[in-house]
TrEMBL record, chain A:
Leader sequence segment: 1-24
Protein name: Extracellular solute-binding protein
Alphabetical UniProt keywords: Cell membrane, Lipoprotein, Membrane, Palmitate, Signal
Lineage: Bacteria, Bacillati, Bacillota, Bacilli, Bacillales
Xref: PROSITE patterns: PROKAR_LIPOPROTEIN
InterPro entries, per the entry: Bact_solute-bd_prot1, SBP
Automatic annotation (TrEMBL), chain B:
Keyword Transmembrane listed: yes
Residue ranges crossing the lipid bilayer per the database entry: 9-31, 70-97, 109-131, 143-161, 182-207
Protein name per UniProt: ABC transporter permease subunit
Protein family per UniProt: Belongs to the binding-protein-dependent transport system permease family.
Topological type in the membrane: Multi-pass membrane protein
Organism (species): Paenibacillus glycinis
Domain ABC transmembrane type-1: 74-274
Keyword presence, Cell inner membrane: no
Keyword terms, alphabetized: Cell membrane, Membrane, Transmembrane, Transmembrane helix, Transport
Superkingdom as given in the UniProt entry: Bacteria
Location in the cell: Cell membrane
Length: 528, 289
């Protein structure tokens, strides 16, 4: 036994020694490696300059064989390499691209792993996350694109607006090509219009009318479900109800109050919103079980005809419509327009900013070719083909609107947005509506929210185009969770508004103060 | 069971009925997924599908099992499981055999080193860097090599080898057999039970492994079934972060359920035949002869 203990100690020490030396030599190694890459980088840029000069001198597209590019994309349900778009792009750009994709779950971890290990991808397209993006940029993991764009990217310059480029600059340099969002309004209250008709009610236009309508839904049982009716159902993790929260003047997470951006919980209107919502809850007009509702539970209640109203994204409409017309054949529904609150305010949160970012990692072996590829993909004709396909085959044009030809559009262009590295910012929102036209019910809902609502109720999220702000990026998510949990408790009556000041103090200390300082310093520069 | 009274029978049947019901209750979630996979999508969304399918149809199932990605992932999983299990068995046995010879110098120290790796390891990033340096990223080797020897399984095999009578080897040596001959012609044929058991452990490990492929495989043509399944199923929970384009392309609940069912079937088919080894395996090596 004694022998064993001794043996173990000796081995343990030996192992530790080995580990220590390994660690120190490792450090040295990585330093050397870093130096090596640095010098390699300078060599590369020198080379690049040389090549470019040669190219300029020849003043012709070089005939040398184009290298195969490696691109990393986000997860999609089909293999990037075999999806028809890949072949089309290969033919049009002349570049063969080998696509890999991130997993659906924990994509950020995997992406960090790939970026930090220096995997030689030429293009990485991922969700727009300013915190991650600027982290990479500041750590020197990305290639500065401005000089490359100047040299090889005339199409990029015309396609991407200066505003978008400015929003992505980190220390004056641009490291990513953005894919801008294509529409403004996401969600509203979807209401059963056949219930309204049955009760002889009008579509509500103010929050008071909404209360009255929900009350009638509860008392008069238009659905014939007895006391099982749920007037308004929502999912438990979104206590800031789109449209209603806008009626209290707080459509976005940070709203302009007297020239300063203020988060909802510090907004003077927050109290009024909570009073209104908890009143709905107390009267049984808001789903009693909303706290435990998941997305699917809420949709289930609406689709089975038990709920009179629900808050959903317009893109969810086809699924819901299909389900509800089968289970309740005479059901009709429509989005509620922007409701006016007690103070006369109304509004939807309007998207601003980016959907995806594409960048070129330092580890890329062909940064110039990557930019050339992006440039080629943004050639107006190529981009149109990428977005909606060929006329007559994938789409038809009707009165300036593009209508998809089904099912080939679904089979060959549904996932096309994953292949984009930047978009033609003037035309893409129009092309893109072809996707919404895939389902007439969906288009109607989309059209109502985005095209038919007056511009003044679409209140842009000011922070959508804000540059990277370290404090805000660091604290935002945690602060949002704090407010979300607190708001749910307030609405459900587990907390009372008398504790609001204490919470606000805690909230400020948890990082709001630092974020607000940063945000408003930037905001002051934009409103000048 | 002579001497039992009627009361005993009554009690027994109550117990049996309770146990049966509890056993069946564990099947409920599975039954729910199964019935979703063969129901119409609208009924699933409206929450009408419990255990009994509503609007029976097999199109979703057919769509899933004929999808080339699914079949490909199934093939990759089977390939990794078969090759991995065979390689693991071979290497484990060849590691365990010399370590089972107490009279060899240094075996104790080696075993301590092996056990050390059970408790400590480098962590994800060093492992990833190692695999990258070995040029195994996007290579099926990255799914097999890191799991080639499980120390626990190796120790089980080692103690089994130790329980074999040493006189067997001595007589073989007298006949002029060398070490390899002894291992492959005498020891391994006698180790059927333990090899079957740890082979099963390895096979289940390789089949179920999703973590290694998640880290090391980026190419969609090399994704094993578990990763494919995870990608499809996880889709549901992230919907709040998705843009409209992604929302429009989310696979339907029915497709997700059908994928879960389809990927469970292969292991379900094999399980009943292998279960006895699992139970046996727990006992192997626990009593030294």
């Amino acid at each position: 036994m004694k022998n064993y203990v001794k043996l173990f100690l000796v081995t343990a020490m030996a192992v530790m020694l080995v580990a220590l030396t390994a660690c120190s030599s490792n450090n040295g190694g990585s330093d050397n490696a870093a130096n090596a890459t640095n010098s390699a980088d300078t060599a590369d840029t020198a080379n690049a300059g040389g090549e470019a000069d040669a190219g300029d001198a020849a003043n012709a597209p070089s005939d040398e064989p184009k290298p195969e590019l490696k691109r990393l994309g986000i997860w999609q349900n089909e293999d990037y390499n075999t999806y028809p778009v890949a072949k089309m792009l290969e033919e049009k750009t002349g570049y063969k691209v080998k696509y890999d994709m991130l997993p659906q779950d924990k994509y950020a971890e995997k992406q960090n792993l790939i970026m930090s290990s220096g995997e030689p991808y030429d293009l990485v397209t991922t969700f727009s996350d300013m915190a991650i993006y600027s982290d990479y940029a500041q750590k020197g993991a990305l290639v500065d694109l401005l000089p490359l764009i100047d040299k090889y990217g005339p199409n990029i310059k015309t396609a991407i607006s200066q505003q978008s480029m400015d929003a992505l600059k980190v220390d004056g340099k641009l490291y990513a090509i953005p894919t801008a969002v294509t529409y403004e309004v996401n969600n509203s209250i979807l209401i059963r219009t056949d219930w309204l008709d049955k009760l002889g009610l009008q579509m509500p236009t103010t929050t008071d009318e909404l209360t009255a309508v929900l009350k009638a839904f509860k008392d008069k049982d238009p659905g014939g479900n007895g006391d099982q009716d749920v007037p308004l159902t929502i999912r438990g993790d979104l206590p800031m109800l789109d449209n209603i929260v806008g009626a209290f003047g707080m459509p976005n997470t940070w709203n302009d109050v007297d020239g300063q951006l203020v988060p909802r919980v510090l907004d003077p209107a927050y109290k009024d919103y909570i009073t209104y919502m908890s009143d709905l809850y107390k009267q049984g007009l808001l789903d009693k079980e909303f706290v435990v509702n998941k997305d699917a539970t809420a949709k289930e209640k609406f689709s089975s005809g038990k709920a009179g109203a629900i808050i959903v994204h317009w893109a969810d409409i086809p699924t819901i419509s299909d389900a509800i017309t089968k289970s309740v054949p005479d059901a009709k529904f429509a989005f509620v327009p922007a409701l006016k609150g007690p103070a006369g305010k109304a509004g939807f949160a309007a998207n601003a900013g980016f959907d995806r970012l594409t960048f070129i990692p330092k580890a890329s072996k062909h940064p110039e070719d990557a930019i050339k590829w992006i440039n080629a993909s943004l050639d107006p004709e190529t981009f149109k083909d990428l977005a909606i396909g060929e006329e007559g085959k994938h789409y038809t044009e009707e009165n300036g609107a593009y209508m998809p030809i089904l099912p080939i559009f679904n089979d060959e262009r549904n996932l096309a947005n994953n292949y984009m590295a930047g978009t033609d910012e003037t035309n893409y929102p129009i092309y893109w509506q072809a996707r919404v036209h895939k389902s007439p019910v969906m288009f109607e809902a989309f059209d109502f929210l985005n095209n038919k609502q007056p511009a003044e109720v679409k209140i842009q999220n000011k922070l959508g185009l804000a540059p990277y702000m370290p404090e805000y990026a660091k604290n935002n998510q945690q602060l949002e969770t704090m407010v979300g949990d607190y708001t749910i408790k307030l609405i459900a009556g587990a907390e009372s508004l008398s504790g609001l000041e204490a919470f606000q103090a805690k909230y400020k200390a948890a990082g709001e103060e630092a974020s607000a300082k940063e945000i408003n310093a930037w905001y002051a520069t934009t409103t000048k | 069971m002579r001497g039992k009274k009627i009361g005993d029978y009554a009690l027994d049947s109550v117990i049996y009925i309770c146990l049966t019901l509890m056993g069946l209750a564990t099947l409920l979630p599975f039954a729910n997924v199964l019935s979703k996979s063969i129901s119409e999508e609208w009924a699933i969304v409206a929450g009408k599908v419990g255990i009994i399918p509503v609007g029976f149809q097999l199109d979703t199932m057919r769509f899933v099992v004929t999808s080339s990605q699914f079949l490909h992932a199934l093939f990759i999983s089977a390939l990794v499981a078969v090759i991995g299990t065979l390689a693991s068995l071979l290497v484990t046995a060849m590691t365990a055999y010399p370590l089972s010879k107490r009279e060899l110098p240094g075996t104790g120290a080696l075993i301590v080193l092996f056990i050390f790796t059970m408790m400590f390891n480098g962590g994800i990033i060093p492992n990833y860097l190692l695999i990258r340096q070995l040029d195994l990223i996007n290579n099926l080797g990255s799914l097999i090599l890191p799991a080639l020897v499980s120390v626990f399984n190796m120790l089980v095999v080692k103690s089994y080898f130790e329980s074999l009578p040493p006189s067997l080897e001595e007589s073989a040596k007298l006949e002029g057999a060398r070490n390899y001959t002894i291992l492959f012609r005498i020891i391994l044929p006698l180790s059927g039970p333990v090899l079957a058991t740890i082979g099963l452990f390895y096979a289940v490990y390789y089949w179920n492994d999703y973590f290694n492929p998640m880290l090391y495989i980026n190419s969609s043509s090399l994704k094993p079934l578990q990763l494919y399944l995870q990608d499809i199923v996880m889709n549901a929970d992230t919907s709040s972060a998705l843009s409209a384009d992604d929302l429009m392309n989310v696979p339907a609940e029915g497709v997700r359920s059908a994928t879960v069912i389809a990927s469970t079937i292969p292991i379900l088919l094999v399980y009943p035949f292998l279960q006895k080894y699992f139970i046996k395996g727990v006992l192997i090596g626990s009593v030294k002869g």
